[in-house]
Amino acid sequence: MDSIFLTEDSNPSAAPSEAGDAAIEPRPRLQFNLNSSKAIVLILVSLMAEIELKTAPADFRFPTTNQTRHCFTRYVEFHRCLAAKGDDSAECERFAKYYRSLCPGEWVEKWNEQRENGTFPGPL
Fold first, then answer.
1. Is the model's pTM score more than 0.70?
2. In CATH terms, is domain 68-117 a member of 1.10.10.140?
3. Using an 8 Å Cβ cutoff, are 76 and 121 in contact?
4. Which end of the chain is more exposed for a tag (fewer CB within 10 A), N or C?
5. Neighbours of 73 (CB within 10 A)
6. In the chain, where the domains are located
């Protein structure tokens, strides 16, 4: 594929075939040559414009830019919530979202292993 077409609703689609796809879908299209890095950047920017990234809200207990303690606390809060309300509790999902946005994946993997082995250093 040498080019990509973006419709007005910014959904990437393959080039129209000779069989008349253009008649089925008459929306205007923008064509970008994929051999151009500038075109690839434009495509990514147009697709990312619709993605909304969120992280944990500010917490007065953690006023500094170092968020290590904030990450650890949210991880512990999530697992305390699961222990108190059960694994199927939707209320605990906000804590999961918070620690997943704050904590590096390597830390979470290590903490999960420690919990399984009974050596996790935090209060659960």
1. no
2. yes
3. no
4. N
5. 19
6. 3-48, 68-117
